[in-house]
């Protein structure tokens, strides 16, 4: 099984409802915005509980994997930046990007979400460069390529598109609302 990168782990094995949620809530308070928490639980009801709690608390539920009877839940602490107003002007909707990919156009899709988000669901052939690593990894991209930047909602990709443009990339497009609006083909650990 592929290892999923998380910033913190919580052992909630052997605990019954509501204790996995209680401990998850406490652990999330200790995380920085954007970090991923892996919660290990054995309570079968924890899968629906974790998803519902994440959605109601404003955090992002990524997925749950089962390994040897242990449910591994992955949750991402949402950032304040994701509520920010978009500033980069060259944007397109996910459907427009999907048409370009299906037509075989020569474009690069750069996914700036965290590694765990990318692992659970991403556009085929997309390049994963988390926003926090973008400046260090600019040399992996060609300034002449048409680059479509995507995240979950369009906020992190907005910041990435601005950073790329400021670094001399002239053919950059922000995909809004990002993966939350994507209905095309995806690759994922969950099959």
From TrEMBL:
Pfam families: Rhodanese (PF00581), TusA (PF01206). Coiled coil: none annotated. Residues 103-188 form the Rhodanese domain. SUPFAM superfamilies: Rhodanese/Cell cycle control phosphatase (SSF52821), SirA-like (SSF64307). InterPro entries: Rhodanese-like_dom, Rhodanese-like_dom_sf, TusA-like, TusA-like_sf. Belongs to the sulfur carrier protein TusA family. PANTHER family: SULFUR CARRIER PROTEIN YEDF-RELATED. This is Rhodanese domain-containing protein.
